[in-house]
Amino acid sequence: MTTTPMRIVHCVRSPIGGIFRHIRDLATCQAEAGHDVGLVCDSSTGSAFDNQLLEQLRPKLALGLARFPMQRQLTLQDLSATHALYRHIRDLNADILHGHGAKGGAYVRLIGTFLKLRGQNVKRVYCPHGGSLHYDPNRFEGRVYHAIERGLGQFTDGLVFVSDYEAAAYESKVGHPKAKSRIVYNGLTPEEFQPVEASPDAGDFLYIGMLRDLKGPDLFIEALYNIRLKTGEAPRAHIVGEGPDEDRYRNMVAKLGLERAVTFHGALPAREAFQLARNVVIPSRAEAMPYIVLETVAAERPLIATRVGGIAEIFGRYSHRLVEPGHIGKLTTAMEDALADPAKMAEQAKELRGCLAETFSVDLMSDRITTLYQDLKGIAPAESSTPVAADNSSAVSRAQTIYARSSNR
């Protein structure tokens, strides 16, 4: 198979969590396919665990790994950051600038526009990964961010959505995409579809994810406390991850008297963490297409998750098993049911794993995105054994039903 090499630069503010997993996999596949790839990200974000993953990626980046200070919120420092990024990206002579998340997307579209004005034939691609789409359109902050997204839409050549839900949220909150758009699910490697067994001394429940309220660790802790109130004994639980609210959750565990039942581990590889407990709980308040849910299902681990973002698309015909987000009573009940019938949880995990490999493949994800780049650049795609669907304007329309059902709760 032959391919026309492209120079591709990915930009993300925070190189952590699922968004960085997506970039790592995509950049690796693109580099292995013969493209020159670079990455630009924030210099102040990331733990030792995250930085180790960055360093593992560095040798694959022919266009280098560059880190600059980037603020999460809109600040005056964004002006100096944009100028610094512009000077770096200008000299890379990129064919594709691919921004991930709200900040990364803003940087590449502004910088890409400046470069086009200077005569560079660069294409600007944006993937929200939730980001600004999580904001409530009826609140002031949401109106501001969605208005910015509408403005930046004028400077966008291609849009990648990681779920039908995300595409529908964009159309509902920002507007119909003017750029060529494509829905591309996150993907896993074949090795990740090997089942993982819990260790003999495993606990009852595992929370794994960022330690911030958006992901719901506080709900997880409160559900453990509720079970203790009913039974007199709290389930044994493990919390794996890092984040800005970690100290608050540790204090919450102490205040509720759960220190003997709950263990904090920091960041761990997902498949290592799965061995810690018999059930995984993902109590998110908002998501796009969370890798941790895909990884849990592929590993055939019993899972309790909420009906947010693209999780219903992962569960498919089993989506009725999902828990209402933010509803502590229903989360507590689901966890109680898991304790009462572990055999049923194991059987459901086996059913759910069924056809995941065909839909959520890292090779399919890379192929779908790279062929979008080629389409934008007018390059004939290389012959491939992976089917490439048409652009997703019709899929965006179909997704309105998914978004409406999820939002109307």
Automatic annotation (TrEMBL):
Residues 16-191 form the Glycosyltransferase subfamily 4-like N-terminal domain. Residues 192-350 form the Glycosyl transferase family domain. This is Glycosyltransferase family 4 protein. It comes from Roseibium sediminicola. InterPro entries: Glyco_trans_1 (IPR001296), Glyco_trans_4-like_N (IPR028098). Transmembrane segments: none annotated. It comes from the Bacteria.
